[in-house]
Amino acid sequence: MTFPELLTRLDTLLQQHRPEYYGTLGPPATAAELAAFEAEFNLVLPTELRQWFSWHNGQEGYDSFFQNNCLQSLDSAAESMRINNELLADGDFVTNWWHPAWVPFLENGGGDHVCVDLHGTFTGQAGQIMEHWHDWEQRTVLFPNLTAWLAAVVQAYEQAGAESALLTDEHLEELEPEHPKGFPQEFEAG
C-alpha cells in the first residue's frame, strides 16, 4: 500500500475501533502551517511527513494513539524542537542526544518522542524512524522510514481490531508492531 492508502486504512480503523478517540483528532495541517514549520527550522519535510500532518494535525489530550504515544501537532513538534535545539546550542547535550533534523510526530506527554530523522543519525539513512528519550541515552531506530512504520501500525491495529471491537488505551500500549528485518537497531547518545 502507498502512504496515502495506509492513512485511509488507518482512518477507517480508528473510526471503527476507537470512535471516541477519533473525535479528539485535530483537523489537517494547512499548507501555510507546513511551510511556516519548514521555514522556522530550515527543513524540507518529506512527502510522507507532510501527508501525515495533513491527515490530522495532532490530537486533544494524551490518549494513546499507538503504544504509549499520542499524535503530536506541528505546534507541539515545533515547541519540542525549539527546546531541544536551544539546549543543544547551549552545549547541554552529549553527541546525538538531539539533532535539529529530528522531527517529532509522536509524544508520550513526558518529553519523549518518536521522530522522523531527516539527518540519518547513526545509520546514514535519512527518513528513518527513531525514539528520542529526554532522560535516557538509548536511541532506537525503529523503522527504515515512515511508510514502513505506518504499515506496521495499520497491521497491528487490524490484528487488535479482529480480537476486540473497541480498542482501549491499554490495548494500544501493549501492541507490538512487526519490524522489518534488521530493525529495531539500538544505539546510545554520547
Which terms summarize this structure?
SMI1/KNR4-like; six-stranded antiparallel β-sheet; 6 strands; 190 residues; 42% helix; alpha+beta
Q: How many strands?
A: 6
Average pLDDT reading = 96
Number of domains: 1
**Major beta sheet summary:** 6 strands, antiparallel
| Number of helices, where a helix is a run of at least 4 consecutive DSSP H or I residues | 7
Taking strands numbered 1, 2, ... along the chain, how are they ordered across the largest sheet? 1-2-3-4-5-6
CATH class: Alpha Beta
Dominant shape: globular
Pfam family, one: SMI1_KNR4
Domain Knr4/Smi1-like: 28-152
Protein name: Cell wall assembly regulator SMI1
InterPro entries: Knr4/Smi1-like_dom, Knr4/Smi1-like_sf, KNR4/SMI1_regulator
Outline the structure in words:
- The protein is α+β, with helices and mostly antiparallel strands.
- The protein has a single domain, classed as SMI1/KNR4-like (3-Layer(aba) Sandwich).
- Helix content is 42%, strand content 15%.
- The chain is built from seven helices and six strands.
- The chain has helices at residues 3-17, 19-22, 31-41, 47-55, 74-89, 146-163, 169-174; strands at residues 70-71, 102-107, 113-117, 128-132, 138-143, 185-188.
- α3 runs parallel beside α5 (74-89).
- It starts with a helix and ends with a strand.
- Residues 28-152 form the Knr4/Smi1-like domain.
- Pfam families: SMI1_KNR4.
- This is Cell wall assembly regulator SMI1.
